[in-house]
Amino acid sequence: MRRKYGICCALTALFTCGASRAAEIRFDTPAEWATWEVPVDIVQFADDGSLELRKFRKEINATLDAHLFTQPTQTRGKVQGGIWQVGSNPTAARRIMDGNLETVWRPSQSDDLVDWVVTIDLGRPVLAERIRLVFPDRAGARPWRQFSVFTANGARIQSTDDVFKFDQAFQTTQPNREQVVDIELVGERDVTRVIDGSLGLAPAALNTFRMVRFVRVRADEKSADAALAEVEVIAAGDNISLGVLARGGSFDNGLLAREPQNMFDGITDTYGNIFTVQSKGGWRESGVWWSVDLGALFWLDEAFIYWQDRGEGLSSFLFEGLQAGSGYQILFSDGRRTIAGDIDYTPLIFEPRPVGAEWNLRHHRYAFAPRKIRYLFWHSLTDTGWFSHPMELMLFSPGYPAQVVLLSDFINLGQLAGDGRAKAIKRLRW
User: Fold this and answer.
1) CATH code of the domain made up of 59-189+208-237
2) CATH architecture classification, 250-396
3) What is the mean pLDDT of the chain?
4) Residue 6 has what pLDDT?
């Protein structure tokens, strides 16, 4: 679950009230704090009335909080993350994602092998780096001997049904005897770039990942006492992109870079649209740009962009010419303004025009030194050569937000004192 830390227990203001009296106003209960404007999913109320600042995590097990996320579906309405599908012993399947190694899911020996399968829905796509299967090894509960693991990013391949394309991530080649099986996820059409050399990171160290929403574990052979304790999906971290609009953020875009909000919604059936036909002189003139206000100031140190390929998100499996564009730049700002009053942006990521086989790349991961970021501005390098659908843009933080702003209603101290007069504040304690 998400860890929470208190940032204050009460806001107290001491002010003069008359010649010899002083009065105090306090905000220290959930009801009182509820009158303030508070950023959603960044600041939360504890039972004792204090405010808690959310910490954004790295290296998370995405199965443990899957139930906190929901997704629209074609056949089930809006669903929470959890067990998407299970063929045998369904009442016990939830145990493989409860964080408890003592609880297990046992497929029934009387069921057909085809039913020895379970599919987990993480509730949102994550940048998964590895999958860890944990098996019990005790009387009546033994590791699966022969099995396969598959993943899907959550993009439907049928317009009227919840059908997804699964790719194999692992298959046993001999009977398994291990209690813990770590599966490193290796994708296709991936590239990792380290922006700041001072980090001392090699791109290869970060180049094992897949965007994953569904994980399927399937037995390839029945075995006695077969049981599974946990399926852990180790992901890059909490995705700050989710919830931009809810926390007060906003989007803007040029004419030829439409629906940027779809890259921040955690739904892989939606996507942005970047499409150029004829040059009008450059990206600015043609409108090949978009921007986002994240709604708060964050420390960010990693970004990931997933560009749609054929057969994904209801696109045709036939060649459509979809690609990741002809080069782009991403700039950032902490909110400071220029003398003219515009947002003052600084370059962050430069993605050059692809050469040769680089045109096949679809999944771009970027690592950089932590920066305070509230605004991002994306633009193409040219206004030609674009036929692209960016599906998801994920952002990751090494910890707490850099700044949080809470806004109260107008507080009339004279009205509170009952005399309608101006007051001198002697002390403000947070």
Assistant:
1) 2.60.120.260
2) Sandwich (2.60)
3) 90
4) 35
